[in-house]
Amino acid sequence: MPDLNDVTRGRILFGGDYNPEQWPEEVWQDDVRLMKAAGVNSVTVGVFSWAKLEPRPGAREFGWLDRLLDLLHQHGIGVVLATPTASPPPWLGRLHPDTLPRDEHGQIVWWGSRQQFSHSSTVYRHYAAALTEDLAARYGEHPALTMWHINNEYCTYDWGDESARAFRAWLQRRYETLDALNEAWGTAFWSQRYDSWAEIIPPRRAQYLKNPTQVLDFKRFTSDALLECYLAERDIVTRHSPHLPVTTNFMPLWTGQDAWEWAQHEDIVSVDIYPDPKDPLAGQFNAMIGDMTRCQAHGPWMVMEQAAGPVNFRGINHPKPRGLNRLLSLQSVAHGADAICFFQWRQSRQGAEKFHSGMVSHAGEHGRTYQEVKELGADLARLGPAVTGTHTPAQVAVVHDWDSWWADQQGGRLSDQVRYEELIRAWHRALWEAGLATDFARPEGELGAYRVVVVPHLYLLTDAAVENLLAYVADGGSLVCGFHTGAADADDRVREGGMDGRLRELFGIRTVHEWWPLDPGETVGCGTFRGTLWSEELEAAEDAEVVASYEGGELDGLPAVLRRGQGWYISTLPEPDALRELLTTVAREAGVRPVLDGLPAGVEAVRRGDLLFLLNHGRLPVELAVPGTHRDLLGGGTVEGSITLGRYGVAVLAP
Ligand code: GLA
How far apart (Å, rounded) are the C-alpha atoms in residues 546 and 97? Predict the structure, then answer.
């Protein structure tokens, strides 16, 4: 199978989404000149070009794309060609209203923006396949082409009638009989029993709380329906160019797609990362998405999009201060990226994203953004030969799962303050600040390579996942689970006793009496630290070791953190310092050391292959002790004993 190594060949890919149809062709010449000067070696074209390629049904206007690909090839710039199927032209919706998705309220999602397609629409799929076929037939062998990019950030839902039919078919495959579905969905509650498949609809707007398993299955179905769209196009392009790898770009920690599942069907795993430059933990977010994507890819991965300056989808959109783009880009390389690309090459002057930055901003060639992009290109060129294809090792893994996230997001829960993605982030932050290299893993996945596995919060765990975690501990691993883990089974049915019995046994919990969610801002004493968000009324088994107990309030004296051997349970969300300390203790006991000891706060060290990346996420210079003698790949020369990193400074040291 072709993969990212076949494209990089010792160079880090550098470039971005290139939408030249927004510009007169004279500008293209200027584009390639600036690309060459910046070291751009890869651009993604065609992402939103459907209306330009097929201005009316069945028409084909390939002339401009022929000229563009030839121009790029002439300048040695590789092309990632996208199938333009994320944004159908207006004619598709007008002539075939059934291609338009419906929202939960039954309202049509109209054209005039993008992504107005129903994943289940036969007509949409037909037109998408026909254009993909012609595109692949025409360009599949083009010498500029390096990989295929299918669609863009698959993320749509559809509650309409065609989707309802596909949902029913999906449910029939999953459950086979209505009895099995009624049992799984617990339809005895509130008179929801289904007597015919035809009665089943997507979870549309309803009077009160919806059936949670119906909602969960709708999310599973939606991820699968979108995946079918991806696979249909992937199969077409692969038929025409079996030598080229195929990807689709994920959104980071996006709820709509089970990225574990999807990644198995991609030759290259790519993701779009947009940390808020004002977030003091932007670097942690960037690291987390890198760690997650690397593990989905089982190796090098691709930053398909990031912003060279501000985005325009937040309430307030901040530019990147000088140096931050470089820092975050090199940080992604440290975490395993072999491609650093942006949305988009040239900042638009019209349309909904005209205030979203580009690699060439409205300020043009002399603007700070382009000048910094150029410097970044030079840095990446220096690193390419030493870094591409190498591995970023970790002995700690965070377990993350979409089914559990979906089950967790519903109404009718004990606390609407519990947000899965924030918990994943809090636990990853603790590991990141502790300087521990971290992977991500699936609950049913292979865990044997890790010394420590942490489960921040998996409310739903399948039986296979529970067995996997138990086997991991039985084999000598250390497992730390966060609150409300293992409470439900695969059908979102609460497990007897409020937590899986095998897990209770593992942690030394005799009984879960009640869950006690906390109010916003409320904290609870736990000995040396304070817990937030959640607490639990637990009764420990006799041989459990109580590591910390609640103090004050209703839970006074009851266990907050407990363990039995290598199985730890934390029944609250400790404040950041405390969670970091707890996980550091577990890691130390398990023999896992930080990448580099004694780093000041805000300085990150990452090993990739035999390189050591040092990254200063702070605005003040720092001096670091680095024992031994190293080659400084970015700065040139040799580093002996210590190095100074300026504001947002990065050093990459080789033996
Ligand atoms: C996503 C999309 C791009 C663009 C950017 C803006 O990543 O794929 O087309 O809208 O967001 O940040």
Answer: 61
